[in-house]
Amino acid sequence: RSESAGRSRLLPAVVVMQFLREAGTPRPELEAKINDVSKKSQARLKSMQHGDGGFGWWSHDESDLEMTALVLEGLYHAEKAGAEVDAHMRDRALKWAGDYAKVSTYWVLDLHKRARLAYALSLHGVPASQWSSLLPGLIAIEKDGLALSYVVLALDSPRGAATKDDTEFRKAAYDALMRLATETDTALSWSDDMWYEPTAVALQAVTMMEPDGARAGKVIRYLLNQRRGRVWTSTRDTAQVLVAAIGYLRQGNALRPDFQATVQVNGRPVGAYDFGPGDLSKTGRTIVPISGL
Q: Are strands 259-265 and 268-275 parallel, antiparallel or unpaired?
């Protein structure tokens, strides 16, 4: 398996673990499983880390800025969730990323990758002055939703202090991102054929920029409607959607629910369920006879 597969297991696992703890709904058996996934994923990542500190798709290829960013994101969230992280592996990856930011050349095909690496560095508290050179100009990315989303995320990170100019750039990038969106009365998305990662990352940006707005709800509705069974198109897509969805839930009252849900069939109530604090994982079942359909 490639590095991307290892990261796609690590990131959602630790984010879900942290969310359950915050919600006050501990699941010891699930946490034990998640901790096991975290340890095994990190062990695999460590075995695939290159001699220069970066990561590629495989252990024997060249270090890649996006793959290194993916790992750094995962390690940040693992630490935040209280999981044990290999500090030596993390610091070597941060050094590779920092060195890349100093000497990297500008390639059009790398625009969203550069923005993602900047975001990963911002998460780890690296000052904006050390990664702002990675951010592409607005004109170059005005049609690239993924790059625009990562610019917004990098410049909105509370751990990477941004200047006034950065704040203005963030607003301009967000406005450009919104212009690329496909919006209906009920959904908001960013088209990328069969992949949902661009819309998931955009959800993170929308949640940051409009925490009390209705747009984030439209994005999450679109993503949920695209799920096939338990997953989206790929493990990477699924991981990114889970991270974005949990970020969205944190902004609302999902951690402390207090409402009643009514099940209706053809406009007729057939069941009702009350949800209160501690009921985050509560489920219910309503049986409707054929005659009621």
A: antiparallel
